[in-house]
Amino acid sequence: MKYFVFRNFTIEPFFKGMNVEFSGYEDVSRFDETADRFIWFYLPSCKCDDETVANEIENYGRMLDWVSGQTDKMLLVFTMERIFKENFQIIDDRVDRAIRVYNDKIRQFSNRKAGVKLVDISDFYQGFSRSDLIDWKYYYISQMPLNPKLAGSFREWFQRQVETIEQKRKKCIVLDLDNTLWGGVLGEDGIEGIQLGEDYPGCCYRFFQEYLLELGRNGIILTVCSKNNEVDVLSAWNDHPEMVLRKEHFVAWRINWKNKADNIKEIATELNIGLDSIVFVDDNPTERELVKQLLPTVSVPDFPGNPYLFSPFSCFLTRNYFRAYRLTEEDTTKVKQYKDNVERVRSRGQFVDFESYLKSLEIELSIELMDEFNIVRMAQMTQKTNQFNLTTRRYTETDIREFVTNGGRVWGLRVKDRFGDNGLTGLMIVTINQGEAMIDSLLLSCRILGKNIEDIFVRYTLSLLKLEGIRTIHAMYIPTVKNGQVKDFYDKIGLRLVENKEGTCYYSGDLSELNLSLSKIYKLKNNER
Questions:
Q1: What is the residue-wise DSSP string for 209-243?
Q2: b/e per residue, 324-335, with b = 16+ CB within 10 A?
Q3: β-strand 409-417 against 420-433: which pairing, if any?
Q4: In this predicted model, what pLDDT tens digit does every residue of 495-529 receive, in sequence order?
Q5: Rounded CA gap, 329 and 344, in Å?
Q6: Any idea where the FCP1 homology domain is (predicted)?
Q7: Distance between CA 231 and CA 237 in Å, rounded?
Q8: For residue 475, is pLDDT > 70?
Q9: pLDDT in tens, 40-70
């Protein structure tokens, strides 16, 4: 990934190790068109004349206006915060007002233009004192208003911001119970004896449960892994008057005396998610170390030593694992979707054959083209989907728009059945050149796998291409650590393997010769707009 950075001061140390080119100071006359993304990182000057500083900031806003209109590629725009303040008059807020206007402009841009993404610098600054943020020696020697000693911390923080913008966040939190969601040990203290409520430390545990409830509302899957008697826990969830999290808030749980690493693996299998999508929270350092050793891809943060530290711990969890740039409809309904999927799995055991099970689900598939309502979710899927993803190419909203602009097709797939609506969970991107089509990307969410939906999706979209007069279809499989299950997918639908080059497989097929018939088990709608 190559970045081009617009700046007004020396900031090179903060992007060390990245593929970055920098503009001159306050120079917006030159664009590096080979850059994949642009960064706008302007800092307020440290001058004593507030009128001059305010005018500079106003001019930076005009410059940003111009730059944002020159490219459709992603533009990451840093907000501005004041580091140096020489306040001769307490009521003089000219600089602060200029910064507010400047930051409001950025927020308006990010809401109005999909390619503009806000990066809130105050989120980084809050971890440091004002004296930490600036080293006057470097400011005067190197025109560097931000302390270069913070460069390493900045790079780690900025990488998390990029991951957030790319909608890369953890899917699931696995929670212990005793001394984690409440104080004390349920099996020893009883329901009346655990610490949860208005007094300290019970108020801290109640706060933590309220935080977790908000995580669930924001699309994070809440699960439990606890060494306890399940009947006691179910009773506590149901009967304790101060309990915020009840049974219905958890998608899955393992409440038993088994090895916690094994239990977490079972939860991942039940939800059909990767272990690297999980964060494990437990007050017991021995249990945390066990999971770290046996399940190294699970994230295991240190648990606070005192309940009054739950507030900063919650901020840590959000910042490092669960923050989203913008929630989609699918994000907000994800918990229900996973609950529905658990019910589907349980329902399957009632049928003697797979076809009868599929018929009982009453599956409805809807195909739709990219539009302004679904593009955010489509870009999100390219960033997050790993298992059923034939090429694992990561795209932004701007990238996806370019496929359509250049004559390609971008189809989304919505899936629902009698248990619930999974939302937009499939994507296919096709490029077209001189009457031939190439499947650039094909991916489906793990939530809908195992029902032959992927087969119907591809055969139907290929039939649409055939109706357009396309005769030849090309495709490829690029192997990754996680997508081995789709290695033979194109072979199964009848495409011919042309070449296998170091594991990357290239396919081709004549649409007039492929079997594009569809099973009558599924109800299929074409919602192309």
A1: HHHHHHHHHTTPEEEEEESS-HHHHHHHHHH-TT-
A2: bbeebebbebbb
A3: antiparallel
A4: 999 999 999 999 999 999 998 888 878 888 887 65
A5: 22
A6: 171-293
A7: 10
A8: yes
A9: 999 999 988 999 999 999 999 999 999 998 8
Contact yes or no for 369/409 (Cβ under 8 A): yes
Give the per-residue pLDDT at 529: 52
Q: What pTM does this model have?
A: 0.74
Is the Cα torsion angle 490, 492, 495, 497 positive or negative in sign?
Answer: positive
Topology at the third CATH level for domain 172-322: Rossmann fold (3.40.50)
Q: What is the 3-state secondary structure (H, E, C) of 469-486?
A: CCCEEEEEECCCCCCHHH
> What integer is the mean pLDDT of 458-469?
94
**Superfamily of 351-526 according to CATH:** Gcn5-related N-acetyltransferase (GNAT) (3.40.630.30)
Asked whether the beta carbons of 508 and 498 are under 8 A apart, the reply is: yes
CATH match of 2-165 with 3.30.465.10: no
In the chain, CATH 3.40.50.1110 sits at 2-165
DSSP 419: T
CA angle 306, 126, 278 (to 5 degrees): 55
Question: Which residues make up the CATH 3.40.630.30 domain(s) of the chain?
Answer: 351-526
Is the preceding peptide bond at 479 cis, omega within 30 degrees of 0? no
Answer whether 379's CB lies under 8 Å from 393's CB. Answer: no
- Considering all CA atoms of the chain, what is the largest pairwise distance in Å, rounded to the nearest integer? 82
pLDDT in tens, 164-188: 988 889 999 999 999 999 999 999 9
Alpha-carbon gap, residue 276 to 297, rounded angstroms: 5
CA 365 – CA 447 distance, rounded (Å): 14
Comparing CA positions, the residue from 460, 329, 450, 296 lying closest to residue 387 is 450
For helices 285-294 and 260-271, give the axis angle rounded to 10 degrees. 60
What would the two tokens of residue 100 be?
Answer: 């507010």
Cα 60 to Cα 39: distance, rounded to the nearest angstrom = 14
Q: How far apart are CA 380 and CA 403, in angstroms?
A: 16
- Looking up tokens 């606070």, which residue turns up? 304
Residues of the chain with CATH 3.40.50.1000: 172-322
